[in-house]
Design a protein that fits this description.
With 332 residues, the chain is an all-alpha fold. The protein has 16 helices and no strands.
């Protein structure tokens, strides 16, 4: 009987590998080599999560969520048509498995493999969950049986894996542990404020002077670009990388904060995040607060306010400038 990882590999046809490779800018062989590491990383994350009742309950919810679409067909749609299941929900499930370590793991693996592995990590989750669902059905496994299957298969894999793969998995584990230690430095309430502060900053500026549909899209796009740039330059286990990389995580793929949230809540999160980081991680405070200030400024500059048909108007409106001043005061 094929293992979970073998089941996924058997379904990854050359055509599918080629399609994925074309979408992310690498060749078919590179995709296959990447999956040889990424698959065990995801399986290891699931095996670790299955060791607790709460973790296993979350895995079962993920398996139930596969009924709404996905599988390898949905994954291929993600790369060819922008399919939402393997994209948004896949990213959400990835966060559900690795929590605050997602960005750190992705950055570490990308550096090791030589290309951005984030799309493959996102796709590997529903692919592996699909294999688990198939095994559970064919073997009539309940929650406890699935947990045993995951832990046994990961243990067996680790006992036979090539040294270079084991070395990479050990590096990923070390990075994940460091990222998790950052979250553990804060209480649950403090961490919520810290990880959501990038979203709070973005939406606080946007809601100060609504720019209409086109303007809002420009502002959201600018926020995404700034976050990507900040993450690109940040160390894998820095607070900026871990917190900004966790900002959009939720098990259903939807953010926990949006532009309709109360502005008092947003500025309160920003203030709490800055004060907490200064108190508990002073060495990271300057970089973290600087990143939030940069994010706020770029969002404010993304769309002109006022004018007519794009003519005239101010780059930053009076209301947006006030929001920037309030954010800076909250961060000071």
């Amino acid at each position: 009987m094929a293992t979970l990882l073998e089941s996924v590999a058997q379904q990854m046809t050359p055509q599918m590998l080629g399609t994925i490779g074309k979408a992310i800018g690498v060749d078919e062989t590179t995709v296959q080599q990447g999956l040889e590491v990424i698959g065990p990383v995801v399986q290891g994350g699931l095996a670790k999560k299955s060791q607790t009742t709460a973790g296993m309950d979350e895995i079962m919810r993920m398996l139930e969520g596969l009924n709404s679409g996905g599988g390898l067909g949905g994954i291929l749609d993600m790369f060819t048509k922008g399919g939402p299941m393997a994209g948004a929900a896949g990213a959400g499930m990835l966060g559900g498995i690795f929590g605050p370590a997602v960005s750190a793991i992705g950055k570490s693996l990308s550096a090791k493999l030589g290309f951005d592995v984030t799309p493959l990590l996102t796709a590997a989750v529903p692919a592996l969950l699909g294999a688990i669902a198939g095994a559970a059905k064919s073997q009539n496994l309940d929650s406890a049986g699935i947990a045993k299957l995951l832990q046994t298969e990961q243990k067996n894999f680790m006992s036979t894996a090539r040294p270079e793969v084991l070395g990479t998995l050990k590096e990923v584990e070390d990075v994940a542990n460091k990222a998790e230690s950052i979250q553990k430095a804060f209480t649950a309430e403090e961490w919520t404020a810290v990880r959501l502060s990038p979203l709070a900053t973005t939406f606080y500026v946007m809601s100060a002077s609504p720019s209409g549909l086109v303007g809002s899209m420009k502002e959201l796009s600018a926020a995404g670009d700034v976050m990507r740039d900040l993450l690109k330059d940040a160390d894998a286990t820095s607070l900026v990388n871990v917190a900004f990389g966790s900002a959009l995580q939720s098990t259903d793929g939807r953010p926990a904060l949006d532009e309709t949230s109360p502005r008092e809540t947003m500025i309160g999160m920003i203030r709490t995040a800055a004060a907490t980081v200064r108190a508990k991680m002073p060495g990271e405070a300057q970089g973290f607060i600087g990143a939030l200030n940069t994010l706020a400024q770029k969002v404010a500059e993304a769309s002109k306010e006022g004018g007519f048909l794009g003519i005239g108007g101010k780059l930053i409106s009076k209301e947006e400038q006030q929001a920037l001043d309030e954010i800076r005061a909250a961060l000071a």
